[in-house]
Design goal:
By secondary structure, the protein is α/β, with parallel strands linked by helices. It has 10 helices and 13 strands.
């Protein structure tokens, strides 16, 4: 059945109409809705125009509802309740504003960054449950674009970010270090010239991980193709292989605190240095989601705390 609904019939006007019918007075309706009396009067008048039938009669300066107005009110209440349920269900299906936030993260960020953000979020929104998914830059970005994750923490340096569809909240920059078995680096060195390690064996993360692209580029700048004897799917397994003497590797500086007593970690010399920009990324059309607003706010606090430590 075709229904003649023109541009004058809006939910906003129906809400003003309902509020007026409940209060019976333009001034009290305006105060309750925090709008002007003129806005209330205009909404009621254009609603009548849109319906093309009278809803009120004037008695002095007062508007008195006609039977048609009481009929419209009855259906307004029903449609408003139905639409409220529809909007709630729509948000639930989309994962917006619910009691759960699906966050994807790089494995290396679970050492310090993710726990800090989770603790901050529990203070801001104690009822919120955070569901973590760990994976490579490539996999996490794909899941975000498919709507399977609400936000991700990745290295945007090695990611193709579309600014038209994605929001980026920078957290910190990280330098890349050479990781070597403890006994295989001469004492006294503070920086690593990659050319000195061109004949060594390496272990690396698989393609698609944040550090992989930087690893390849740094070696190419040094003028050699790395002899990679093993590729793994998480950074902790990779560093366990380095610790066991399987080979050398390149790792972000955020891993240094955990492994500095078990491995030799040397900062890459400047010609080979590939810095990562770590950021929170989420869909632009979700920027007003209260859970993501809280995460972005916590991210800004975390970013400031990192700057204070450096200062």
């Amino acid at each position: 059945m075709s229904v003649d609904i023109n541009s004058e019939l809006t939910f906003r006007k129906l809400a003003i109409f309902t509020a007026f019918m409940e209060r019976g007075n333009i001034a009290r309706t305006a105060e309750a809705l925090d709008i002007s009396a003129v806005s209330v009067h205009r909404a009621l008048h254009t609603l009548e125009e849109g319906l093309r039938c009278p809803l009120f009669t004037h008695k002095g300066r007062n508007l008195v509802p006609l039977p048609a107005a009481w009929t419209l009110l009855e259906y307004c209440q029903e449609v408003t309740q139905l639409m409220a349920r529809g909007l709630e269900e729509t948000r639930r299906i989309a994962g917006v504003g619910q009691g759960r936030l699906r966050v994807g993260t790089l494995y290396s960020l679970t050492l310090e960054t993710v726990p800090r953000l989770i603790m901050g979020m529990k203070l801001r929104r104690p009822e919120l449950e955070m569901e973590l998914t760990m994976g490579s830059n490539q996999v996490l970005l794909s899941k975000l674009e498919d709507g399977l994750l609400d936000a991700i923490l990745i290295s945007v340096t090695e990611a193709q970010i579309d600014p038209k569809t994605l929001e980026v909240m920078p957290l910190f920059q990280d330098d890349i270090w050479l990781a070597a078995p403890a006994e295989q680096v001469p004492d006294g060195r503070t920086e690593a010239d990659l050319r000195d390690y061109s004949d060594r064996k390496f272990v690396s993360l698989a393609e698609g991980f944040a550090t992989y692209a930087g690893f390849q580029e740094a070696c190419h700048v040094a003028g050699f193709e790395p002899d990679i004897v093993a590729r793994v799917n998480d950074i902790f397994s990779m560093l366990s292989l380095v610790q066991a003497g399987v080979g050398f590797s390149l790792v972000p500086g955020r891993m240094k605190t955990l492994y500095e007593n078990n491995l030799q970690l040397l900062k890459l010399a400047e010609p080979y240095q590939m810095r990562q920009q770590i950021a929170i990324v989420f869909a632009h059309n979700r920027e007003r989601d209260p859970n993501l607003l809280a995460l972005a706010a916590e991210g800004r606090m975390y970013a400031l705390s990192r700057q204070d430590v450096k200062a």
